[in-house]
Fold each of these.
Amino acid sequence: MENSGIFQTIEDFAKSIGVSVRTVDSWVERGLLPTCKVGKRRLINLYQIRKNLASGEPINATTLAKFRKKIEN
């Protein structure tokens, strides 16, 4: 799949950052990367990653919010 600049396949994302597909799958399963599902494919949301990094937010602000809520209770 070609990189549109907004979304990227797990395989392409893994290759672009130099880690295994299994590693990225693990990050996705743990909710560490923002993704969306298109048909049967799960795509990495590059736009959200770039936006969060540019604003100084963690890559997945939703995950961080859940974590904060969990430790506060």
Note: The two ends are 42 Å apart (CA to CA).
Amino acid sequence: MFFKSISLIIDDKENDGNFIAAYLNKNFVPNIFYCYDSNKDWTGFETKLSGVRTIFQDLSLISTASPDVTDFDAAAETIENILDENNGPWLLITWSTWAESESETDFPKELFDHLRQELPVSLRPFDYITINKSLFTPGHDHNPVSLPNDASLAQLHELIENKITQRYGLKYLIGWEQAAKKAVHSALAELTNIASGHAQSNEILHKIFENIAESATGKSTCITALNAGTSETLTDIIKDKIENQIPNNLDDFGHVIRSARDNRGLDMTGLPSWKESINRAIHFDMSEKVKQYHKPGNVYKINEKVIDSGIKSFPDSISNAGALSKFKRKNFFCFLDSERDLKNEVCERSDLICLDITPPCDHANNKAEWNKYIVGIILKDNDDKFCKLVKNVNNERVREDGIRLINDSLILLPKYTKDDGSGSLYRVVLNAKLTFSVPVNICDATLGNLQLMRARENILSDIRSWFIRQATRPGIVELRG
């Protein structure tokens, strides 16, 4: 079944674009047709689209003969101007009389490769299929398509279904997206149904939001705080609905798993750090919006800030860069004699950070007069080995194999990679013995613009549980050989 998500049609011929629109309309697929105009001025165009999952793209937007790089540039420019950077994955459907032409040149692949190279990473097509427009022209040539009818639309439907049938992973992901949208729609319905049918339904809806806001944040007069509390409550409702709905697309998912198991020897070397990229998506929010607020889970880079009491409540006095390196070595590292020359280098390339672990209920209800932070560092590549336990074997200090750290007050978070193309790996290590607090009213002055990322709720909950265990640990005596 064709994706029930937004489809974008880009063609320079109105009849050809309307042919696709007729097919999509017949199948109740929301769509937008942009008739290409080389003179279009995109200045000030800010209402970009998100959630587009298929783009029907004509290959020859400018050329009167076979497609060339000017057509591909025109397609890339149009897509970049229409799609929002958070649009998500989309399938390129090349819709052209040149899609399966007699030429030896594979124009659809050329366009796909061109878009993958020229568009920003977040806007690149995930995959592509080809539809031969010539099948729907009067002479099966390069002329405009005929007017749509039931037979030609049925033929187009069969072509598309046959082309996309093997895209099980993409179909499953889009199916999950549709299920998530249904959860949002269900949450909206529950709230509006309370007021629906009343003579003053709009005013009642306002009252509902006011009560949710005050329950979430206390009787605050700050609109920003009230809005944040309401938004968080609505998000909790939606999150619960998503988590507790019936699993979707079991048939597609079955194909996905069988395919993966049949390809256990699949060469993944062309995708360096792919597991660390998944870790980033699961555990850390690195979007620009993180820099707009202070909330639990925020991670701040405080390398320079702690020097000369930039943070007055910091658990140590650090006067210069040398003292900062010493602080890192003392609390996070243990070097072997053979690694002595690496001490300064490792400390310099690790960033001192703090993580906001303030209870979320205190944030939500504006009860927190102080925000609480735990201190850590961000390690690069394989530097986490310097945090591992060192022991004496035959009067020689050696690093222990395994996962034990130099002391129980440390915790290593999953390795991740940044979306910057560098290929570098990073890892956060936290120390439960190093905490400090900052008054809420000076939080922005103290830590503003230092936000690096935000630990997502699941990993933040795990960190809080670990910290509580450390804070309440009575301690035992243990003799070690």
Note: Residues 58 and 222 are 51 Å apart (CA to CA).
